[in-house]
Amino acid sequence: AVEEAQRAINAAHVEAESVENGIGLVKLMGRDSGFIAMYATLANRDVDCCLIPESPFYLEGPGGLFEFIEKRLRDSGHMVIVIAEGAGESLEERDASGNKLFKDVGLWMSHKIREHFANQKKTITLKYIDPTYMIRAIPANASDNVYCTILAQSAIHGAMAGYTGFTVGPVNGRHCYIPFYRITASQNKVVITDRMWARLLSSTNQPSFMNH
């Protein structure tokens, strides 16, 4: 998924740098966690800002996203933004019951950016790319095929041995039987205090919006 996402990011960069004040916006999978967006950004040196669900951000005001976009356009003349589909949930609208109204965050962000610069009387060219189905449809590589074969064979062995309510996964370098309740007990999230996220901030030079 990360490798295929590079093609979308490269296309967004080409489109953005081809015009004055060009912005390339790429939405990647990740409603609850931003691993794909983070690793795709780290693997590509053309991304200027990465937005994921684990790292809250805001749009308006000092230190906000719009201020950073304006600065990057002044300095470079173009910008590439990668956004995970679950980013900015705190900014999204809610219904009368307080439930989140899930919408395409890429289209929503595109509208907000265009609206902001229209109010500023500034001309921009924004290209929005959503490669979700392209990424989902790529064929498995040899490594994935071997891994899935091991998982399938291990699951059959476990079922034939009489085990139920389990799945198979790697634990400390070995494939083990893991109870469902252990899998669903927690969710894997990007730790924004970890070095990997710090590497991303260093790569993109984007601010940590939480510090403002």
Automatic annotation (TrEMBL):
Residues 1-157 form the Phosphofructokinase domain. Pfam families: PFK. The keyword Magnesium applies. SUPFAM superfamilies: Phosphofructokinase. It comes from the Eukaryota. Keywords: Allosteric enzyme, Kinase, Magnesium, Metal-binding, Transferase. This is 6-phosphofructokinase. It comes from Opuntia streptacantha.
